[in-house]
């Protein structure tokens, strides 16, 4: 479909009916992007004041919390004062959901993918949803992408017939073609490639590993994927390693942009045309317990969230705030995302904790795909889809390389397989600990 038809006659009217005023928020964010840091600060400060006022008056969970901690409204005047409020974790939401909801607000239910645990099911009110969408399209516009532009989507896929129909309708109305991460065989990837040649997507959007596997599948089949003439590829949902970024860029001949976001809060960080990750003005990011390099736990305060409010919410990711300026001139501060999530590490017999990213770096040149399982403290089973030459000599070398980090007592066994499934969400998890 013509992108402007999708934008003006489908997207905006549907959002308006749902009560999600994306258009005015988009205008607001467009203005903000060109303002000074001082104006941005005032804008966010005002939003924070409204949020705290709101939760104090309408959200029983916070009313009680403030009472218990003897916090009065006047105690939270700025972002620094926020530190008086304890961080919010997923279990707080699960255990207090009915006290976090404002029943007078319209909302839709959402669920996280649950890749690293059980999914979190929570409501999102219309205003917060509309701001999330507006922020997304504002950020996409940095790379020439507009609402309604043709998108190739690399994501999970509905399983139930009714959900499948809804998904198909939504994809059709929003000008998207989807490749299910559940079915990424070379044959399916080739079929999807031919579909895209006709569809001519302006951009790709999806999980890092699904897009990466699509690139590898086309490369294996000696396809010149630059023929697709894709303008930009937006990767999200998983850690984007440099080697993956380089491979995707090489195969499709276009820029790869990293998006950092959560289902709960929408986009948090987004790379601009200079490759720097800016923090979105719709959230306030804090870093707590930083290590010696400045990387610490990320806390998000979503400034427009009402039902449910996210104040100092722990995302489970690690990041760092940067003090550098970006040549793009946007007033939004910069951040960097750490390659390891807080809980994804390998426990070693020698007592060490090693981020699972070591696995990705060790195997990247030798396997098409891998998934490691730690079944015992001293046993790591690694399923691999090997590239050519994955002989026992190479396996021995890889074990030695890994043992340098994991210790000599760690037993490592390779199992060659022809298929490794993605998670039910469509994300790919390359390390699973059973400890
Ligand atoms: Zn920038």
Plain-language structure description:
The protein has 435 residues and is α/β, with parallel strands linked by helices. The chain has twelve helices and 19 strands. It has an eleven-stranded mixed β-sheet with strand order 4-3-5-6-7-8-9-13-12-11-10, with helices on both faces. Strands 18-17-16-19 form a four-stranded mixed β-sheet, with helices on one face. The N and C termini lie far apart (50 Å). The site of zinc ion (ZN) has 7 residues, from loops. Zinc ion binds next to loops.
Layout of strands and helices, then pairs:
Elements (H helix, E strand, L loop, with lengths): L2 H16 L3 H12 L3 H22 L1 H9 L21 H11 L6 E5 L9 E5 H15 L10 E5 L5 H13 L2 E5 L5 H14 L3 E5 H13 L11 E5 L5 H11 L2 E8 L3 E6 L5 E3 L3 E6 L7 E7 L10 E10 L11 E4 L7 E3 L5 E3 L1 H7 L3 E10 L2 E8 L5 H15 L4 E6 L14 E3 L2
Parallel strand pairs: 3-4, 3-5, 5-6, 6-7, 16-19, 17-18
Antiparallel strand pairs: 1-2, 7-8, 8-9, 9-13, 10-11, 11-12, 12-13, 14-15, 16-17
Bound molecules: zinc ion.
Using brief descriptors, characterize the structure shown.
435 residues, alpha/beta, Rossmann fold, GMP Synthetase, Chain A, domain 3, 2 domains, eleven-stranded mixed β-sheet, four-stranded mixed β-sheet, 12 helices, globular, binds zinc ion
3D shape = globular
Number of domains: 2
* CATH homologous superfamily designation of the largest domain: ANL, N-terminal domain
Instruction: Determine the mean pLDDT.
Output: 93
The CATH top-level class label of the largest domain: Alpha Beta
Helix/sheet category: alpha/beta
Low-confidence stretches: none
CATH topology annotation of the largest domain: Rossmann fold
Strand order of the largest sheet: 4-3-5-6-7-8-9-13-12-11-10
The total strand number stands at 19
Radius of gyration from CA coordinates? 23 Å
Q: What are the distinct ligands in this entry?
A: zinc ion
User: How much beta, percentage-wise?
Assistant: 15-25%
């Amino acid at each position: 479909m013509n992108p402007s038809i999708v934008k003006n006659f489908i997207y905006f009217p549907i959002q308006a009916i749902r009560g999600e005023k994306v258009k005015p928020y988009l205008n607001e964010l467009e203005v903000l992007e060109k303002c000074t840091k001082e104006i941005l600060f005032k804008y966010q400060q005002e939003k924070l004041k409204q949020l705290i006022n709101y939760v104090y008056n309408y959200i029983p969970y916070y009313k009680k919390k403030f009472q218990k901690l003897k916090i009065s409204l006047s105690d939270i005047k700025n972002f620094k004062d926020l530190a008086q409020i304890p961080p919010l974790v997923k279990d707080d939401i699960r255990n207090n959901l009915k006290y976090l909801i404002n029943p007078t607000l319209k909302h839709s239910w959402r669920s996280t993918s649950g890749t690293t645990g059980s999914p979190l099911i929570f409501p999102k009110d219309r205003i917060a949803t509309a701001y999330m969408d507006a922020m997304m399209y504002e950020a996409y516009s940095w790379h020439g992408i507009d609402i309604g532009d043709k998108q190739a989507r690399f994501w999970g896929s509905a399983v139930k017939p009714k959900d499948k129909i809804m998904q198909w309708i939504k994809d059709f109305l929003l000008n998207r073609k989807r490749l299910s991460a559940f079915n990424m065989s070379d044959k399916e990837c080739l079929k999807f490639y031919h579909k895209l040649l006709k569809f001519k997507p302006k951009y790709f959007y999806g999980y890092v590993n699904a897009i990466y596997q699509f690139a590898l599948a086309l490369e294996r089949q000696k396809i010149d994927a630059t023929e697709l003439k894709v303008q930009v590829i937006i990767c999200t949902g998983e850690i984007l390693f440099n080697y993956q970024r380089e491979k995707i860029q090489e195969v499709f001949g276009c820029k790869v942009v990293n998006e950092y976001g959560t289902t709960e809060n929408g986009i948090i960080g987004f790379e601009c045309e200079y490759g720097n990750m800016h923090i979105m003005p719709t959230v306030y990011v804090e870093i707590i317990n930083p290590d010696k390099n400045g990387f610490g736990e990320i806390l998000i305060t979503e400034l427009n969230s009402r039902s449910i409010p996210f104040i100092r919410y722990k995302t489970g990711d690690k990041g760092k705030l940067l003090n550098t300026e970006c040549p793009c001139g946007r007033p939004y501060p910069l951040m960097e995302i750490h390659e390891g999530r807080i809980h994804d590490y390998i426990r070693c017999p020698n007592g060490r904790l090693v981020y699972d990213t070591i696995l990705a770096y060790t195997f990247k040149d030798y396997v098409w795909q891998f998934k490691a399982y730690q079944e015992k403290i001293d046993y790591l089973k690694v399923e691999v889809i090997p590239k050519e030459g994955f002989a026992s000599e190479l396996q021995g070398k890889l074990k030695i390389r890994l043992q340098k980090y994991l210790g000599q007592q760690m037993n490592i066994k390779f199992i060659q397989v022809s298929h490794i499934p993605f998670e039910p969400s469509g994300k790919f998890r390359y390390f699973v600990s059973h400890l």
